[in-house]
Design brief:
6 helices, globular
């Protein structure tokens, strides 16, 4: 939301209570956690909404799977729900993307497919189709749990140099897992989570750091601070030990 707000506040061409060409900002998060922004382009023939511009920007940078999207009005108008056309686009191309919408009870995050109950999904190949519930299965829940990594860790994880990952407020569970590194093409390694240790940040050891391809616990804490800027020394983290089963992965 903050990215969408900053974008439209910086780029709007209209004053408070004025009409303009650029009055809405949107931000979309891709499956690999990259963020992309856009502003609307009003035109009487039907210029694109900010959400569609943001989705186009994401695609231009190689993102193919989207995690969530939000639109914000200029001059402090807050989150504004997508129009009917946008909802149809979301359902057709990203039915499991989450959409942040305002409600009488406050902001909610809902699946795009849930914005249009009993909708018929359109595809370029087949046109309008009947409702197929299988199309709306969330890939996050289809198969072993996903543990996401920055793409720069792919080589050290695949080689076995990195066998642990330390997470803050990002729970995992013992057993089979899918290690995901990027979204286009999505690289997935089959793995087994063999141990999860809960401990304060201050209790991380040099051995933990070395299992992550680092040297010292202090270095590991610095890396974690880069990933989690709000992390404090008294916070608890999960030290997840895993074993990669598939050294090649699927792309």
């Amino acid at each position: 939301m903050e990215l969408a707000r900053r974008t439209i506040d910086a780029q709007t061409d209209a004053g408070p209570n004025e009409d303009g060409i650029h009055t809405m900002g949107a931000a979309v998060m891709a499956a690999d956690y990259r963020m992309f922004a856009g502003v609307n382009l009003y035109h009487f023939t039907g210029g694109p909404c900010a959400e569609l511009v943001a989705l186009g920007a994401a695609r231009a940078q190689g993102a193919r799977q989207m995690r969530c999207i939000v639109a914000v009005g200029n001059h402090g108008r807050g989150v504004i729900g997508p129009c009917g056309r946008d909802r149809q686009v979301f359902v057709d191309y990203y039915p499991t993307m989450r959409v942040i919408v305002p409600t009488p009870e406050g902001l909610r995050s809902v699946l795009a497919a849930d914005l249009m109950p009993l909708v018929q999904r359109w595809t370029p190949e087949a046109g309008m189709n009947g409702l197929d519930p299988s199309l709306y299965q969330d890939p996050e829940t289809a198969g072993p749990p996903i543990i996401r990594f920055n793409p720069r860790y792919l080589d050290v994880v695949r080689s076995g140099a990195k066998t642990k990952t330390t997470r803050f407020r990002d729970p995992a569970r013992l057993g089979p897992a899918r290690l995901v590194f990027e979204s286009d093409p999505e690289v997935v390694l089959s793995a087994e989570v063999t141990d999860i240790r809960h401990c304060p940040v201050t209790d991380l050891t040099d051995q933990d750091a070395q299992a992550e391809g680092l040297t010292t616990a202090a270095e590991l804490r610095d890396v974690l601070k880069g990933h989690y800027p709000d992390l404090a020394g008294t916070d608890e983290v999960d030290v997840i030990t895993f074993q990669v089963n598939d050294q090649t992965g699927a792309a």
